[in-house]
Structures
1.
Amino acid sequence: RSSAASDVYKRQLNRRAEYIERALKKGKYVISDSPMTLSSEKLRYLFQVARENNVVLIERTTLVYLRAFNQLVWLVHSNLVGDLVSVKCAISQDDFEGGRTFNETVCTAICAVLKLLGKKCQDINTNAVRNQEGRFVYDMISMKYAGALATIEIGTTVDIENELVIIGSNGRVTIPNDWWNTCLLYTSPSPRDMRR
């Protein structure tokens, strides 16, 4: 058995967990698109199957591996803008090559918020707008933290101004356009006006 051997599947979300489980039970390492499943119970089960089969299971969330994004997180946590007050993420599904589902898009934005503000979210509200066929066209998600607020704006067929804005007690950081592909960060003499 070779643990490094892998099978590659590009599956829709409704069958993704099934294929992941099958690969894990074959002793394969799995890197899955995000989200692996919408069920937290099923997600815990998949990680248990990976442990039982001594294989690796990870979600492919490119943002967490981008050097510039990690530098941004480090700078913000190093008091670049003071105490964090707000994180605003705006992202359009249509700006991804080949398109993305709502669930895949929202995972990128939630990942950014969690990296910047942490896991101790106190409350989450969503205000989804659907078209006549019942598909998401727009959503505004708010995440309340002790002393901070995150908002995530997601659009499908509506025009969204993509940006990531981090507001602190002493300044702000704005990354326009496709912030999830941040490659470089430039700082001005004043950290209050930092742009990519």
2.
Amino acid sequence: GKSRANKTGDLRDKKRWRVLFLSNGEKSLEEEIQGQGMNAGQLVRLIDIPVTKVKGCLKNSNQDESNTALQNFHEFETNLHFSSHIHSKITKQYGTAGASFLDKYTSLSQEDREKWSNRFSEIKQHIADETLETHGNLAKDVLRALDRFSLVWLALDMAVSFNVLELDENSIKQAVFSTLQAWIEHRGGVASKESD
């Protein structure tokens, strides 16, 4: 957000978006606001990540890989069986992980909050370094978007620490970087979307 003056003429605090959500909308944000003066900041607030056309996700090589996002079926034979299993578990467990996560997060001591804040800084630096190494110069809006991916990594780290999820660090890193790469490709690269 831009710095503006408050009633006394001093700079008021910048407002920042701190919300992440998933949408299965048929139109991306960019498609929705096309022709309405879209700016890069809007696209950073609501990051559009495609989840289709992921290669190597179907066990039966005769099946069309172009319309599924599942990469690993675990012990299930097809993506349909796996997604049906996920749906049945979600229906029974909906909200329990989130409630447990929030309960543990709100109970953190000041020392633990500082530890997690430091961890967030480490993750942000790691993601920025890797992305710069892979893609070169990054537009300001891309750098801001990296914060969103860092926040997801931090939340996953915290969920593991809180015993809400069972993931290893490598799985978290791989998930974040593959999602980041999908976003960059979908976005059309790391160059600025608007003139500075």
3.
Amino acid sequence: PETKPETKPETKPETKPEAAPDLPSEKAPSAAVEKTPSNLVELVQPVEAVDELPEAIDGYEGVTFDKLASFPYEVPLDPVTNRVELVKLNAQIPERIKSLDKKPVAIRGFMLPLKVENGLVTELLIMRDQSMCCFGTVPKINEWINIRMAGEGVQPIMDQAITLMGQLKVGEVLENDYLVGIYEMEGDKMIGPLDL
């Protein structure tokens, strides 16, 4: 009679878990950080960057939003009803920014018209980027300037960066006791994206 060779049940060799390499926590990002969920990819849109300005243009100091928005500013939710509160708010603005008050400056950014007369913009916001215009993102209070243009106004240009020149005013702007801005400008002129 034929005998079958004895077969042992198949056993897998024991495996020990591999030790993770010792990496400092800063250099070992989690998988969640490394990979963007696929449903968010479509929502991410590039925001057009604004080129650097020359140090001066026709006697106006070139100022960037990198400088104007370089500090944190806590916006109060309640009305500002006394001078003590106003002084506390103003203390948040660094001296290097306050030194620009009542100075002729040139600033490059994106236009959001507020008031149009006869096809020309007479009042506008100039903003650091297009996020408010395109995506409805509310910018920080130091990322826009409220501008009233001298004369008849300027052409509306909203899809490209423009440069506005005028007298900058630095300090709290209140309407009905509510803080609505910290920068204003009496606009003298505008130059478009191709003029520099």
4.
Amino acid sequence: IKAAIEAELSRQARPATPAPAPEPEPEAGPTPEKDENYTPPYIIKAVRQVLGKIDLDPASSAVAQRIVLATVYLTKANDSLRTKTPWLGRVWLNPPFSNPAPFTSKLIEEYEAGRTKAAILLVNNGTETAWGQALLSRTYPVCFVGAHAGGRSRIDFWQKEPDEPRTGNRYAQMIFYLGQEPEKFREVFSQFGVIR
């Protein structure tokens, strides 16, 4: 999988100047300046329990990879949306919360085309958005992260050090599973909230 993704990246010619970013859906909340919030280790541990390993993290950074440890990860520099890089294998996706729409669309497209074998997606609870409706209209299991069985009510993301989470997250999250083992997802992620 790593070789296939790297071959596709090297095959494609990068434009001299990047194309303009797609317009984000208007919504109150996260901004591009605040997108560098990394998933805490306990969530990534749960992701690995379901997926086995992470072949691709298509919206990442070197900092995030200290915890995620994907076989291949893509950053702003080798943008997985502007290139035709296939999202192969088992995918972990925590897209920029300021503009998750193109990432969620790409994930759905890659999964339904059979290139992504399984995926776990972490997004803000945007049930009213077009991308939220696109996810919810399918049969993908979703965990609505919340106070459940004495657990955490919101995810504390980190920015500089994994053991120093930034507290006070004002947004609820949803974690979706796209794959053939929904019961495994339910078993592992029910510790974080209600699964639908």
